[in-house]
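Dear support,

We are seeing what looks like truncated structure output for some complexes. This example has two components. We would appreciate it if you could run it in full and send us the complete token output so we can diff it against ours.
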Amino acid sequence: MAGLGNSLSYIRRRRAEERAVKAVLFLFALVSILTTLGILYVLFQETVLFFREVSFAQFFLDTRWTPLFLSQRFGIWPLVNGTVLVAAGAMLVALPLGLLAAIYMSEFASERVRRVLKPFLEILAGVPTVVYGYFALTFITPILRSLFPQTQVFNAASAAIAMGFMILPTVASLSEDALYAVPRSLREAAYALGATRWEVATQIVVPAALSGIAAAFILAVSRAVGETMIVAIAAGQQPKLTLNPLESIETMTAYIVQVSLGDTPHQSLAYKTIFAVGMMLFLMTLGMNVASYLLTRRFREVYE
Amino acid sequence: MTTEYGVRFEYGVRFEPNLAHRKALGRVWEGVALLAILLGIAMLLTLLVQVFLDGLPYLRPQLFTEFPSRFPDQAGLRSALQGSIWLMVLTALLSFPLGVGAGIYLEEFAPKNALTRFIEINVANLAGVPSIIYGLLGLGLFVRGLGLGRSLLAGVLTMTLVILPVIIVSTREALRAVPASIREAALALGASRWEMVRDHVLVYSMGGILTGMILALSRAIGETAPLITIGALTYIAFDLRGPLDIFTVLPIQIFNWVSMPQTEFHQLAAAGIIVLLALLLTMNAMAIWLRNRLQKRW
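Here is the complete output from our reference environment:
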């Protein structure tokens, strides 16, 4: 009887241990939710404080952003303009190159060639962004200035080009996944109808994978919008409404860096502006990430 | 737009009779596509060569033994190197149990319910949040909220949150690669779920988990934006004394030097980049070595 009692308590102890471990692991998983809540809480709290001093009209209707000057203006659009200008420029580089790279990797490259090329793209993605910033400022900008003499030392184009190459691997690898997921039967049907390899790739596989490719693009834009160091180094600190990529501009992220580097007192309005700008940035990237997620899910459903 | 050959319009394939011409065109485009990849690689190589040429003159012992200085000849990244290494070690210690634990929970224990699904979507979304937003979180929560100030600890906590989603995702992938037969065998012999995970699944997936961990850390060591936002300084001229001390890291020191107008400082920045890249290369080599050595093929 004593033996039975022992094994019963052994089982109970094991069950208790099991429950404890599960509870602890659950708490660890909850950290991710707490992180999101934390982000929302911090951004909301300071943004609300910001809008107590600055009206929505000043934020959304003004066309100048000069919170660090004596005559403070709080129009967000110059920062949004700079952000979108650089992101669009980066996509002009990353989109065609990334898609072509993906088509080549998925439809044409032999296993051996893939194994040689893939690591290079991975390294390209792994280079720290501060290094791309250095490259943009010390290498790309001088080239731009010799081609277009009116180019300013800090300019949107140089940052955009460096950023384009930085996100190229993201576009390539996500698009490749989408292309790869297109079933063989579609390709074979097209071959049977007499299409060439390139025709199959561009007129069958790419259209079939379009939602996946679109998801990859949106995710890449979201990364470009949130990218900080390249623009902080190479694009300048002059928020303005312009479409000229050779001019100095300022992005939302670069503004946050600019304020963080200065010794801005807590509670000051300048301190609150970075949270308001951060909120704007967060909402923009969140919207794009959700759109990308929904697109990916749709494209998965088609061929499962 | 359907004709008697309805299919061809739906898929958009236009059959031109001249096959040789079409094949030649295809080959040209194939070359263009290959060129796109080669352009990316050429860019990478140019970047590396450029950085090495710029930085080589300053790649000297003083780079590692000296603190930053107003005079490029006397400047080094001693404090930045200390900060980066400490940041990496402490972030690893904190993020490993948290990330791997969360990954294990989601993959092995979580019931299939709305909460689990919510956590999963949330992790995926966190991976897409710009790192500078984490910096704002760290500033509001750790620097001000917990009163940690611009300390290394605030940096470690912030960076842990940045890389947590990456670790969770790679841990889950590593766990998923362990075949069901291993789990079933353990459970059939009377192991509890946790015993099965601890004694069997984790053992087999440790290679993959550690690889993911190293890759996450190599991201952490190159991250700059969140640390600038929480106020990591750019100029520190003394040794790091503890986790509550103010600190700087390699990428911030590099950023600081790039921001200077003088060419000498740009060369110093390039030398700093060489050190940073060497560190990253070492970590990635370790990851590949681990992957080849510990990862089991089924």
